[in-house]
Amino acid sequence: FSLSVCFSSKGRGEAMIELNELRAGYGTFEVLHGISIAFPPGQVTAIAGPNGCGKSTLLRAVLGMAQRMGGQVLFDGRPVEELSAREIAQRAAYMPQDRPVPSISVRRMALHGRFPYLSYPRHYRREDYDIVDAALRRADALELADRPLPELSGGQRQRAYLAMVLAQGAGTVFMDEPTAFLDIRHQFGVMDTARSLAGDGRAVAIVTHDLALALRQADRLAIMQDGRLRMLGSPDEVFESGAVDEVFGVRLRRVDTPDGQQYYFA
User: Fold this and answer.
1) End-to-end CA separation in angstroms for the chain
2) Whole-model pTM above 0.85?
3) Beta-strand pair 78-79/44-48
4) Considering the chain, what is the average pLDDT of its residues?
5) Which residues are CB-neighbours of 220 under 8 A, at least 6 positions away?
6) 136 CB contacts (<8 Å, ≥6 apart)?
């Protein structure tokens, strides 16, 4: 992955997103029970927990795709209900776990990330094409730019959708299992890109099942269980708390190496 590309910050909101006692779900079924968490700019927050604990619902609730039943979602102190869909999209980008596969090229898909900055009917500017090319390069997808999405492997499609998210240029980036379908090299590449985005001053939140990778790369780890936030802290704090062992029923261990602390399961 190329990590040297800088994106224009024009139109990018720098708001910190905060959740206060958020309750959310679908229909009458409450999935999240009083979640309070903030996503600070310049940090990567990994969100982990057993299947069905509400990780994906948490991201969807922030963006209004899951029903909010109580509590608050704040964008730089403003309640999310005061913002238009366009304003939200300029401040927060979302890469869902399950996505459609339209019969368009990778570059055309990446251009969809520029929609929040265009009036209708949409006419792309030179600036938009430049931003998209930079996003494709950063997602290691530039060589796929002219290929139709349906012809790509799962991992290649994942890189195409990552490029679209990057092209959106939002101050906060939410990713739901972004390393799914990717080989080892591209898994590390996604995390390197997340770290680079945080280095740009963006907030990054990643839902992941790869705890070892999250502990190595994230600034903070949020452990969820049964729709509640069980633990939030640095990798060291989470390790010392024993929350991973209790929630996942495993034995998390840590060892010092020349490359820093490494985590493994015994």
Assistant:
1) 32
2) yes
3) unpaired
4) 91
5) 43, 44, 45, 46, 232, 233, 234
6) 106, 107, 110, 142, 144, 145, 163
